[in-house]
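Researcher: Please predict.
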Amino acid sequence: MLFLDLARAFDTVCHESLLDKLSCIGFRLSSVNWFRTYLTNRRQVTIVGDSVSGELQIKCGVPQGSILGPLLFIVYINDISRNCAFTTPYIYADDTALLAHGTNKQEIEWKLQCDIDNLKYWFEQNKLSLNCSKTKAMLVCGRRSRYKQDVLNINIGSDPVECVDEMKYLGVLVDRHLTFEHHINNLCSKISSRTGILWRVRSFINTNLSITLYNSLIFPHMLYANFILDGSSKVLIDKLIVHQNNALRAVLFTDCRTPRVKLYADTGVDPLDVSMKKTLVKIVYKGLHDIGAPVYNGMFNFTNSSRDLRSNDLLLAAVPKVNTKFGEHNMAYRGPVYWNSLPFHIKSCPSFECFKTAIKKYDGF
């Protein structure tokens, strides 16, 4: 993997190039002219104490802190994929990662190097610049792989790219063995500190308010990208569940002797391992019905057979064949397994909203 970092990405967008790209993707002339007035003739000043600088016209960049800013930037770099012949780009605003796979390290290096050379030229043409010191590479492999100690040798021009063992991408600490151990440890620390806050204020608030605080301070951290952690080791997941139990004890103002089942029953909260599975089957539903992100639409499919099999009427998802335990931790494998365990009346929900309501009440995981 190659994690790209753009220097001052939003501030260096060329207005004329952006307007041309809006025209190319189908915007009418009147709409393009509206965006032209939105982007041009903007001015800025700097205030330090009582001193105010003179006005300076902004000649490039998209307004930050607005809804349109990230959307316009996405339009600006959307054609980056045309320059990636050997890798798959994953883009979220200015966070871009290139993913290449191969049977050996040399093949991966060659693919990444070819595409980064093309992208360097594309960035220069579009008046964007890569921050070489913050761009990182990572060789992802299993713990038992013969490449587990190797590093990727990638260069941007004459500057070598540092190869790291872990990298924070979109709020998740990704490590080269995909164990997510450091991410889970960080998550445990956040939950622990917020549980401490809950204990300190618990004697002054009622249970309903403490549940609200749990949903505001702790639950979002446990919910974010939790389906990725589903494939982590049971030891790490149990560690997170212990911290969740401690937080719920603070919510109910009870001691460690309270059974785990009662904690979840009294608060109406799902255990973390159950929440992960419910999140994953929601993604599977979207993938099976082609209403999710494109990467999921091709990942999950219904079983199809030319023969008149009973499984064709049960809405079963195709489970990919895996040869290792490492493969069983992949969401492409675990998702269909969880999906196939659902009752038919849930799998046959006609809409995603209906499915979300049904899966929220489901207690079979």
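Model: The longest strand covers residues 88-92.
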